[in-house]
Amino acid sequence: MPPRRVITGRSQEPRRRYAEELRLLRAERDLSLRQLAETVGWDPSLFGKLESGATLGSPEVAQALDGFYGTPGLLLAMWEVAVADPKQFKEQYRRYMELEQEAVALWHYSPSAPPGLLQTRGYAREALAAGGLVGDDLDQQVEARVGRRLLLERDDAPPLRAIFSEAVVRTPLLDKQAWKEQLAYLLEVMERPRVTIYVLPFSAGLHGLRNTAVMFLRQLDGVTVVYTENDERGELIEEPGRVEYFQRSYEAVRDLALSPAESRAFILRMLEELRCEPSS
């Protein structure tokens, strides 16, 4: 077994250090990415992403590389440190935004709020302010979130399928006018041929995604990446087995949801009831 290198003095950021270690180990064997992939069994593009720091991959990949390079436990331990690093969550979200722009199809499930792609400026401002943003930071984040909607206005806009819990359309903003505008915007985008929205009624009962927002991003190469988010953290998932698990959960939720036509009628009824309320 080759001696473990002392890695002090190289990058102290866990994700970069892991990527650096992988590059050096492959260079020592004088292997191309394709040669490594043919030996270990994954796609060459995955190893390229691992070595550039674009992804951390899965623990199974780290273990396989430990076995191949003769470094038992080293790479897996480095992977665990990188995954646990708080900075990783922010980097994952940046990576998610990149993948969203490159996606050829998007699926969403939202338990408590419309996905950012479908939020009006008024909704985004109140939601972000509720999270503690103020002043210039709030203004910048609102514009960034609203700017994401341009993705759906491109000529080559990816198909978007979004499932909302009934809670999404029953939890109003404090600003009633802004809430009317949000519901009206949902009805507007539902008219677009590439946008499909489902409402999941409370009567559907418990299900596997009830506490988690899930976003599926299908890429041009056919690979699907999943981003999950709750009140505490977000996680970018590329491991095929876990992606398949969330896909099955998503399909089960879709089967419980109202049809697109029923969902549109539900949202329209909510908006009409709001419009009929007496002005305060």
Automatic annotation (TrEMBL):
<dbReference type="InterPro" id="IPR001387">
    <property type="entry name" value="Cro/C1-type_HTH"/>
</dbReference>
<dbReference type="Pfam" id="PF13560">
    <property type="entry name" value="HTH_31"/>
</dbReference>
<dbReference type="InterPro" id="IPR010982">
    <property type="entry name" value="Lambda_DNA-bd_dom_sf"/>
</dbReference>
<protein>
    <submittedName>
        <fullName>Helix-turn-helix transcriptional regulator</fullName>
    </submittedName>
</protein>
<feature type="domain" description="HTH cro/C1-type">
    <location>
        <begin position="22"/>
        <end position="75"/>
    </location>
</feature>
<dbReference type="InterPro" id="IPR043917">
    <property type="entry name" value="DUF5753"/>
</dbReference>
<dbReference type="Pfam" id="PF19054">
    <property type="entry name" value="DUF5753"/>
</dbReference>
